[in-house]
Design brief:
161 residues; mainly alpha; elongated
Length: 161
């Protein structure tokens, strides 16, 4: 039943369905490319750089998926649910988990990079810790509006019940 509803929505909005398929294909291709770079690294530096990029990209995909799901619930589905509020907390938890993982990743990179590439270690660690800065800025700019819209949806839903 749920897959039938998804198929009906795709038939109603073919441009959105095509865009979703294209985005999914780009994400999968990027994951495959990053995994390929990790598996076929020639030096320890290439391996560490590729694994850091894979770690950063997977975090960004997770956070953007959560944001898109919040926007879907708020603006497309236009129905308040408790998930709308919980997803904001999940984003914060994912960011904390990312920084814990970045600490472990920087230790791993430090132990595996090799002495001839220690000069590039600071830029690699800076990229690892600086990756979520754009998502944090996005959160500070747009999450208050999303939260306000979610609260407005909740009030409208309470009035109709």
């Amino acid at each position: 039943m749920n897959s039938l509803n998804l198929w009906q929505n795709a038939k109603k909005n073919p441009k959105t369905a095509i865009l979703a398929v294209i985005i999914a294909a780009v994400v999968v291709y990027s994951f495959v490319d990053d995994i390929h770079n990790v598996r076929h690294a020639a030096t320890s530096y290439d391996y560490c750089k590729a694994i850091c990029e894979l770690f950063e990209y997977s975090f960004k995909v997770i956070v953007w998926c959560i944001y898109f799901f919040v926007c879907y619930l708020t603006y497309i589905h236009k129905q308040y649910s408790r998930w709308s509020i919980w997803l904001f907390y999940i984003v914060a938890a994912v960011m904390v988990i990312y920084y814990i993982g970045a600490l472990n990743m920087s230790n791993y990179v430090f132990n595996h990079i090799g002495p001839d590439h220690f000069d590039s270690l600071p830029s690699m660690v800076h990229g690892l810790y600086g990756a979520p800065i754009y998502l944090i800025i996005f959160s500070f700019l747009f999450l208050p509006k999303l939260i306000k819209d979610v609260i407005k949806l909740k009030e409208e839903q309470d009035l109709t019940i």
